[in-house]
Amino acid sequence: xxxxxxxxxxxxxxxxxxxxxxxxxxxxxxxxxxxxxxxxxxxxxxxxxxxxxxxxxxxxxxxxxxxxxxxxxxxxxxxxxxxxxxxxxxxxxxxxxxxxxxxxxxxxxxxxxxxxxxxxxxxxxxxxxxxxxxxxxxxxxxxxxxxxxxxxxxxxxxxxxxxxxxxxxxxxxxxxxxxxxxxxxxxxxxxxxxxxxxxxxxxxxxxxxxxxxxxxxxxxxxxxxxxxxxxxxxxxxxxxxxxxxxxxxxxxxxxxxxxxxxxxxxxxxxxxxxxxxxxxxxxxxxxxxxxxxxxxxxxxxxxxxxxxxxxxxxxxxxxxxxxxxxxxxxxxxxxxxxxxxxxxxxxxxxxxxxxxxxxxxxxxxxxxxxxxxxxxxxxxxxxxxxxxxxxxxxxxxxxxxxxxxxxxxxx
Length: 411
Hints:
Number of strands: 14
Structural class: alpha/beta
Number of domains: 2
Strand content: 15-25%
Helix content: 40-55%
Strand order of the largest sheet: 3-2-1-4-5-6-13
Shape: globular
Largest sheet: 7 strands, parallel
Radius of gyration: 20 Å
């Protein structure tokens, strides 16, 4: 249980590229009366960020805490009810802070896509978080809210309107945007750590009780390596190609399915999830698949990683404001219900998905934990390392709709 804390929310890493955007979003959209602060390792840079915030936010507190200083991050965690952190790669900079939040009973959200690191955090800190009541929620950005919460949206609609379970959900993405240096650094760090084999396990993130998945482990759970056709998929195209984020998103969705099953609310008797990138033709799909395979191969080599670091945006840098404002993402969803009906859905977010939409999803996730906690699934099921769908489900969906994002079931 949380005793009275000085702050409701601390935005950690507020001087970084994504952190600055998160601080600006909180300054503009914070619920009335929210007591919040910004933190990072440089007092001077934090004060510069604060100066650029809107209105009364220019008076928010500045907290200095280096992510490698266990004493400092422990003190930080004990001063606030919720920590929002953008400091990645999380395998390099996130472990001490997550551990401190677990021990202090402090709720936590991040935007990691580093599934092997999250697996380690589950193994080490899940039980502690259960004991302290800390709700720890990684994957609260474009990795992996659309996939995870979108799947939950479809399954929940089928359960309420068809009164049955869901056999499968399939998603197809299309998007436009840029890449920031922090995202590239995370990808390169995972490649340097040689975690590809563990990342390839389809049920990497599942609870130990459900490590084999909610259904049998077979080809239906494998990551596609070539294009495929889906005649039921809405949106721009019926051809799909392997999606570079799928090895992260699919693991998160499967963890959610397993957790809901353990809670007595299974998605379906043998639920299957698959996602891809929508393309115009089979030929384009082969091009995307080939490019993705070449990119993975490049990052597997030391020389390839060195070349990528030379040409990629540096940490702290990212797309221009015009690029971020002009981006978008759209997700088409197909749910196969156990009564043999098919239900379609759609998600759309304006702005660069890896920056604008990620920041929106992250900050609204934090607001769920600060303002709406009593209505969350986490309020019923308690602390632990959860997913966006299992921790926040309908409340996060409601908040994101209120921001103008489209989350709809097309019956």
